[in-house]
Write a structure and sequence with these properties.
4% strand; mainly alpha; 290 residues; disordered C terminus
């Protein structure tokens, strides 16, 4: 039953999000042919609103508080988000450092200057914040809480992480097993942070920063953008190495070095937990049987 509720939530959120996006088009929004910051802000913004609406409905049906689905207004929400943002920014930088050390990429100059740079950077940050809230809430909010109550936290985390990777694999062109695997492993790492902190704040910050740095600063391509670099990237970057090193059209997530960076994430975060910087907040991650 918990599996059906989790699946129903994901499908319902994505379906309502599609309806709201269609309404936005009818109201005058014209999506670009490639990825753009404005498109992220509108599409992911209304998608997150849709996810909140469906969550509110399910909370009412289950006689729960919507804050139980991962976004409680706790005192440490902002510090957790900022910490997640720092970790998320560091991960693609680590991958890129290994690529550059092997001669697989080179930096050029800034693509914007002055007011244009400030505008492009601001839109990029807002766009990736919207993306982080949408994807983390839809896939690791209500679904993770619900599955955890039914089958246990780690089985639920593994199932949702594999599903997240498979969605990337089948829903985007030019994907390969490396990208699907690393996406699943990153999702599992984010589940670890949810287990440790009791909420989504760290995970959302991580997700936003990872994509911001990878797409806009390091200029990694993405198959969702037809294997091209995003036009509004802030820095000129040339990828010259082989696909196994750079990720090719799939971007840094599909680099072989991503496995090294992910292993570092797990190891360093485990050390962080061991030192007591984070304590498992099981009262907020309800893993009791339904």
């Amino acid at each position: 039953m918990s599996i059906l509720r989790a699946l129903g939530y994901i499908v319902g959120s994505l379906a309502l999000g599609a309806v709201l996006q269609f309404a936005s088009v009818r109201l005058g929004w014209r999506p670009s042919h490639g990825w753009s910051s404005a498109d992220f802000i509108i599409s992911d913004g209304v998608g997150f609103i849709a996810a909140l609406i469906v969550a509110a409905i399910t909370a009412r049906m289950e006689k729960r508080n919507i804050s139980e689905y991962g976004l409680p207004l706790v005192r440490n929400a902002a510090p957790l988000y900022i910490e997640g943002f720092i970790w998320g920014a560091a991960a693609p930088v680590a991958i890129m450092a290994m690529v550059i050390a092997c001669g697989g990429a080179a930096f050029g100059g800034l693509r914007f200057h002055g007011a244009a740079l400030a505008r492009a950077a601001t839109l990029a940050v807002v766009a990736m914040i919207a993306l982080g809230f949408l994807e983390e809430y839809v896939f690791r909010g209500y679904p993770l809480q619900t599955l955890a109550r039914g089958i246990g936290f780690w089985p639920a985390s593994i199932a949702l992480s594999v599903a997240f990777g498979l969605i990337h694999y089948f829903a985007k062109p030019m994907e390969d097993w490396i990208d699907a695997t690393t996406v699943s492993l990153i999702a599992l790492f984010l589940c670890l942070t949810i287990r440790a902190t009791g909420n989504l704040w760290f995970a959302i910050g991580f997700h936003a920063a990872f994509d911001l740095v990878a797409l806009y600063i390091l200029g990694a391509p993405n198959t969702g953008n037809r294997g091209q670099q995003i036009p509004e990237r802030l820095v000129d970057v040339r990828f010259t190495g082989p696909a196994w090193m750079t990720g090719g059209p799939r971007g840094l997530e599909a680099s072989a070095f991503a496995f090294v960076a992910i292993a570092m994430l797990f190891a360093l975060y485990a050390l962080r937990m061991k030192k007591g910087s984070h304590r498992a907040a099981l009262s907020r991650v309800d893993v009791s049987a339904s």
